[in-house]
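Quick log. Single chain, no ligands specified.
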Amino acid sequence: MSYHITKTEYEVMETLWKHEEGIRQPALLEIFHSEGKEWKRQTLNTFLTRLADRGMVKREHRIVKPAISREAFAHSRAQEVVDTMYDGKLSNLVLAFSETGGLSDEEADRLLELIQQRKK
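-> predicted structure:
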């Protein structure tokens, strides 16, 4: 599944991941107010509705919780980048980083170690 969200929706998800057991919507709104976001209740509700429509949050009795883990979200987004930018091949992504100097020797060693473990 692909999860396309805005930067602000991602901020909402970050806060929800910190409260994965669930949080009441008024408390969630208060967190954003304490961070300097002067959102109205309806503004937060709009973000939550969009995220719920994408299957990213669950809402029950004014309690909101993430429906997807941060790790699952990250994996989905990473896979999307590999699929769209690198012909679906992780090796093409690694090659792009190694050719531009974006892959340190330490990272290369770690990748080799992970590949060797995977092959066993």
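The domain at 71-119 is CATH 1.10.4040 (Penicillinase repressor fold).
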